[in-house]
Amino acid sequence: MLNRFRQFWTKVITPIATLLLKLGVSADAVTLVGTIGVSAGALIFFPRGHLWLGTVVITCFVFSDMLDGHMARTSGTSSKWGSFLDSTLDRIGDGAIYGGLVMFYANSHAGNSTLMAAVTLWALVMGAVTSYARAKAESLGLKASGGLAERADRLVFTLVLAFFSDVLNLPILLEIVIWYVAAASTITVVQRSLSVRKQVLADPANAGLDTPPPAEPKND
């Protein structure tokens, strides 16, 4: 869904990417700093209940995910290492965001806090499995993309409603989106698993383990 806005954001980040390249900043450095910023924002502010502030900090760094890729393409330094680093650090950032929310609910005294901590943890796990399912399928020469919950959609929905649930003092908003992410991620894992099984059954050659070299890591 959010891919439709990619052209707009590319225009926004192009001057920033150009400036950083002129200053000698590498795309890998931007990737690393962005992950550190996202993780710090989530793990420092979310557990304390400062959801709006944590979201603002995370948002300031989360666009590095687009910025580093644009810098790599512009400078001609795109590589398998860069792709691997980006995807690996994305998992860390995702884990920090949902992990911070797990700690937020664990520290809360609300009546359903234990349940929400468990649901948030499930959303975290299934989000990671969603990405793993795609990477594993592609390493086997198959496809397992798409589904109900893409990574960008999950993060944007979660951060936007975390912000407004705090600002408007409506915790139900965050609870709704976490339940949605948990359910949608689970459905996506099932969808991708069924897609891989269908491809294997359609072509007996896919049933063996003699596979081509692993594909480059992908985000969701």
UniProtKB/TrEMBL annotation:
One Pfam entry name: CDP-OH_P_transf
Cell location: Cell membrane
Claim: Lipid biosynthesis is one of the keywords in the record: yes
EC number of the protein: 2.7.8.-
Cofactor: Mg(2+)
Entry keywords, A to Z: Cell membrane, Lipid biosynthesis, Lipid metabolism, Magnesium, Membrane, Metal-binding, Phospholipid biosynthesis, Phospholipid metabolism, Transferase, Transmembrane, Transmembrane helix
Highest taxon of the lineage: Bacteria
Gene Ontology biological process terms, A to Z: phospholipid biosynthetic process
Membrane topology reported for the UniProt record: Multi-pass membrane protein
Sequence positions that bind a CDP-1,2-diacyl-sn-glycerol: D28, A29, V30, T31, G69, R73, S79
Active-site residues, as the UniProt record annotates them: D90
Enzyme class (EC, first level): transferase
Pathway: Phospholipid metabolism; phosphatidylinositol phosphate biosynthesis; Lipid metabolism
GO cellular component: plasma membrane
Binding of Mg(2+) 2, residues: D65, D86, D90
Residues that coordinate or bind Mg(2+) 1: D65, D68, D86
Function, in words: Catalyzes the conjugation of the 1'-hydroxyl group of D-myo-inositol-3-phosphate (also named L-myo-inositol-1-phosphate) with a lipid tail of cytidine diphosphate diacylglycerol (CDP-DAG), forming phosphatidylinositol phosphate (PIP) and CMP. PIP is a precursor of phosphatidylinositol (PI) which is an essential lipid required for cell wall formation.
Record-stated family: Belongs to the CDP-alcohol phosphatidyltransferase class-I family.
Quaternary data: Homodimer.
Name of protein: Phosphatidylinositol phosphate synthase
